[in-house]
Design a protein that fits this description.
single chain, 81 residues, mainly alpha, 72% helix
């Protein structure tokens, strides 16, 4: 494991301390979990965006008309389909 030093606002520190106390965990544990979750979420988002860009580059696209027709069909059927 690596050690990282960072500066956070007084408000963020107070919130971190409160969350750590409420969960009976250390500030380091709570901060590490937050960083891990942030990285996972953003990695997923970047991968999804890249997949969309790759599809667009390969001209694997759905027309606006087709998307609109599907959404109208779903709305008419109560969200099914």
């Amino acid at each position: 494991m690596a050690t990282v030093t960072l500066r956070i606002s007084d408000e963020a520190n107070a919130a971190l301390e409160a969350l750590a106390a409420a969960t009976e965990r250390s500030k380091s544990y709570v901060a590490l979990r937050a960083i891990d979750e942030y990285i996972k979420l953003n990695a997923w988002q970047i991968a999804a965006i890249q997949a969309g860009v790759d599809d667009a580059d390969a001209v694997r696209l759905v027309s606006h008309v087709a998307v609109k027709q599907r959404w109208l069909s779903r709305a008419e059927s109560g969200g099914e389909g």
